[in-house]
Amino acid sequence: MSDDLRIGVIGLGLRKNLATAAHRPGRGSVVVAVADLDPAVRATVPDAYEGAVAVEDYRTLLDTPDVDAVIVATPDDTHEAIACDALRAGKPVYVEKPLGISVEQCDTILRTAHETGTRLYVGHNMRHMGVVRTMRDIIARGDIGEPKTVWVRHFVSYGGDYYFKDWHADRRRTTGLLLQKAAHDIDVVHWLAGGYTTRVNALGDLMVYGDLPRREPDTPRPDGWLREFDWPPAQRKDLHHVVDVEDVSVMNMRLDNGVIAAYQQCHFSPDYFRNYTVIGTEGRLENFGDRPGDEVRVWNTGPSGYRADADVVHRVPDAAGSHGGADASIIGEFCRFARDGGVTDTDPVAARMSVAAGALATRSLRDGGTPYDVPPLDPELVAYFASGQVSPRPA
Ligand SMILES: NC(=O)c1ccc[n+]([C@@H]2O[C@H](COP(=O)([O-])OP(=O)(O)OC[C@H]3O[C@@H](n4cnc5c(N)ncnc54)[C@H](O)[C@@H]3O)[C@@H](O)[C@H]2O)c1
Fold first, then answer.
1. Which pTM does this prediction carry?
2. Are 296 and 286 contacting, i.e. CB atoms less than 8 angstroms apart?
3. Which of 269, 272, 268, 301 is nearest to 284 (CA)?
4. CB distance 247 to ligand 1 below 6 Å
5. Is the CB of 175 under 6 A from ligand 1?
6. What is the mean pLDDT of the chain?
7. Hey, whose CA ends up nearest to atom 15 of ligand 1?
């Protein structure tokens, strides 16, 4: 009999590449059950995952004894309820990012993990992307000295299609795209800089997608909505019936170790790209592309005029699969953690801190840029997760 980890997947929408990465019968993990509200999605399950059952209510999946661990990939506003039920059911859980849409939701999930002692994992897959790991290795080796400032420009060319044609566009479901989309990058800023944001401010606006034609409520996303992209962006139509999140946002962060960072997001650029610059006391790095084979360049001599060739050029390592190989890598880490526990590259506390920074920045941009302090996490929870999710046993 195979000893594959038997996985239940809750939510099999666009993010189904996680389930695909988890379905490796005979090679460590297998999808045995899927819960999804949509009957059309459930109908695809037998062909996609041989032998898997498909159910409507995720609680039925949680009650199934032969599910060892679950992946939650439903819309962001549902994560708190589903993750807490999974933790209470004693099923190690992978929650897609963002962990929640508010600080309170994240803290409830972390507290429930502590109370139940069930393993919690948060899917910040960018920590498994080659470009991010390359930048982190450069910093860890000291090649640019001590990092002092991090600047991220995020060009979201497909933004009008991916984020303004469904639930993402409704702030009741996401809070805003500075939390929803940026949670990844804020987490990477924290990881590269070695600290957490304590104070934020931000400006932002809905500039292009506020006045375009919208669909009626309860109508499905249009056929081919991710195959045919309209250009220029103002030609886009069939938007979600609620559009009240910003399509441009710019945020500043001060971290607990003194690092100052900035993150900028635009949803109507022609090209998709994340551009990171990190400046340390002895150099700077910048990525040129973010896929396998692209470059991270380091300048660590000077001063000089601009030198496109830099001092050292690092290639982002080759990797196969979605998100530059990050999805297969992160699912591998989750399966190992669900079975054995131990240290992981992703971190539930860090996931909470990125949501907290994004949530407070969103509050700032909606009241004209007022700076806000990010509320700290309960020290008892910090200690629990720092210990690897192991509670001290009473003597
Ligand atoms: N890490 C990444 O790179 C990345 C990329 C895209 C999306 N995401 C995250 O993945 C999650 C899913 O996003 P998506 O784009 O696949 O959304 P989606 O809308 O395409 O799919 C969500 C699926 O969940 C189902 N669903 C909704 N509520 C449910 C419930 N209560 N019980 C069972 N099924 C339910 C829907 O029927 C749908 O099939 C979100 O949290 C999103 O932020 C992460």
1. 0.97
2. yes
3. 301
4. no
5. no
6. 96
7. 14
Tally of CB atoms within 10 A around 271: 7
pLDDT in tens, 52-63: 999 999 999 999
Based on its alpha-carbon atoms, the radius of gyration of the chain, rounded to whole angstroms, reads 21
Query: Cα(230)–Cα(122) distance, rounded to whole angstroms?
Result: 34
134-178 pLDDT, tens digit per residue, is 999 999 999 999 999 999 999 999 999 999 999 999 999 999 999
**Residue of 190, 323, 165 whose CA lies nearest to 247:** 165
H/E segment holding residue 157: none
pLDDT of residue 10: 98
Q: Is 38 in the pocket of ligand 1 (CB under 6 A)?
A: yes
Cα(258)–Cα(20) distance, rounded to whole angstroms?
41
**Ligand 1 centroid, distance to 163 Cα (angstroms):** 12
Asked if residue 24 lies in contact with residue 77, where contact means CB atoms within 8 angstroms, the answer is: no
Q: What is the pLDDT of residue 320?
A: 82
Pocket lining: 74 vs ligand 1, CB cutoff 6 Å: yes
**Distance from the alpha carbon of residue 73 to the mean position of ligand 1, in angstroms:** 5
